[in-house]
Design a protein that fits this description.
It is built from four helices and six strands, in the order ββαββαβαβα. It is α/β, with parallel strands linked by helices. Strands 1, 2, 3, 4, 5 and 6 form a six-stranded mixed β-sheet that branches.
Length: about 130
């Protein structure tokens, strides 16, 4: 069973996580999570600045091809509200899929890293 989380951190960064296998039977849950992410991003943006987002994909095993479009649409929808987005910990398969999602979304303020520390450092150095 996959796990999807979203949390507005006390560090001013929105923390997301995608874990497990996201099969066709989990696409509705992924869509519900994506809508929650949109709500949190907009709520945090209303506080006055574009937001920073970090996503933990270290335990994401794989996902159904239709998940690519859901995730790309999430990136597109949030683009006006996001200063920078970073992911960390993805396997080679997930990194390739992430590159496809980035291309589909047209986002240029989105990067992947091996570790959480690297991702957070990039967000904090480049953000605001």
């Amino acid at each position: 069973m996959p796990e999807f989380t979203v949390e507005a951190g006390k560090d001013g960064i929105i923390h997301l996580a995608l874990k497990g296998h996201i099969g066709s039977e989990h696409l509705t849950g992924l869509s519900v999570w994506a809508e929650e992410v949109k709500r949190v991003v907009r709520r945090e943006h209303e506080k006055g600045e574009k937001v920073l987002v970090v996503t933990d994909i270290s335990k994401l095993e794989n996902y159904h091809p239709e998940a690519l479009s859901t995730l790309a649409e999430l990136l597109k929808a949030n683009e006006p509200y996001i200063e920078r987005s970073a992911t960390f910990g993805g396997s080679q398969f997930i990194i390739i899929a992430q590159d496809i999602i980035r291309a589909l979304s047209g986002r240029t303020n989105f990067r992947g890293f091996q570790t959480e520390a690297e991702a957070l450092q990039w967000l904090k150095e480049q953000g605001r």
